[in-house]
């Protein structure tokens, strides 16, 4: 059974037992929407997935069937599985290993250094950015929708587009070449990361595909990403 715990006014924790099947999990989310909608709407929530392993596709399904209709804002994902946590972090979400594993000291130190450099919490935008619309943020940005031609997204952190990327994206706009761009469908002729510009041809094998884009040895590297 999924548990919804009140931590303080407007702050909740949703605990999803790791031994629940996927079907049981979504039945539990449906039950929460019908019985706890008055608590969820407008609240900040931590989602604790415990030791569950999951894919980006499952994350998107959770978002569409529970988080978006509930009207809550997810402030933290607690998950101990390293690969699942990496998926979340690459998409720009704030994560924790929760009570199940200890975070490596060097990673904690990296987080402190990042915060000291002025990296802000992630920003999530629901909807499609149309030509002429712009989003700029001093942290990670996640777009749940498309970025159309003529639209622009600039972020000091990583950029994730769970949709078509047809506009301009600049991750690491503060000058960092260590950021990543992730998209469900790459349909943009260029992507900027830090001080580098990647040019993508329409004949590329990656055109229209889910990809990650990052800088490796001073070169822009495009690689496949798990299908969303």
From TrEMBL:
Residue ranges of every copy of the Septum formation inhibitor MinC C-terminal domain listed in the record: 127-221
SUPFAM superfamilies: Cell-division inhibitor MinC, C-terminal domain
GO BP, sorted A to Z: cell morphogenesis; division septum assembly; regulation of cell septum assembly
Pfam family name, one: MinC_C
UniProt entry keywords in alphabetical sequence: Cell cycle, Cell division, Septation
Subunit structure: Interacts with MinD and FtsZ.
Family named by the database record: Belongs to the MinC family.
Summary of the function given for this chain in its UniProt record: Cell division inhibitor that blocks the formation of polar Z ring septums. Rapidly oscillates between the poles of the cell to destabilize FtsZ filaments that have formed before they mature into polar Z rings. Prevents FtsZ polymerization.
Protein name: Probable septum site-determining protein MinC
Gene: minC
């Amino acid at each position: 059974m999924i548990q919804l715990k009140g931590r303080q006014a407007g702050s909740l924790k949703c605990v999803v037992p790791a031994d629940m099947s996927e079907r049981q999990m979504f039945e539990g989310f449906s039950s929460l929407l019908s019985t706890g909608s008055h608590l969820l709407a407008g609240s900040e929530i931590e989602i604790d997935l415990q030791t569950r392993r999951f894919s980006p596709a499952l994350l998107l399904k959770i978002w569409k069937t529970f988080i978006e209709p509930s009207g809550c804002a997810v402030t933290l994902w607690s998950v101990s599985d390293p690969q699942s946590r990496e998926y979340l972090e690459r998409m720009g979400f704030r994560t924790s290993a929760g009570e199940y594993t200890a975070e490596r000291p060097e990673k904690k130190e990296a987080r402190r250094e990042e915060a000291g450099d002025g990296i802000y919490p992630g920003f999530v935008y629901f909807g499609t950015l149309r030509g002429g619309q712009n989003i700029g943020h001093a942290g990670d940005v996640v777009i749940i929708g498309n970025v159309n031609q003529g639209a622009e997204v600039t972020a000091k952190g990583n950029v994730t587009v769970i949709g078509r990327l047809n506009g301009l994206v600049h991750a690491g706009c503060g000058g960092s070449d260590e950021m990543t761009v992730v998209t469900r469908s790459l349909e943009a002729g260029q992507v900027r990361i830090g001080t580098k510009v990647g040019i993508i041809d329409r004949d590329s094998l990656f055109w229209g595909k889910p990809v990650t884009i990052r800088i490796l040895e001073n070169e822009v590297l495009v690689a496949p990403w798990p299908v969303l």
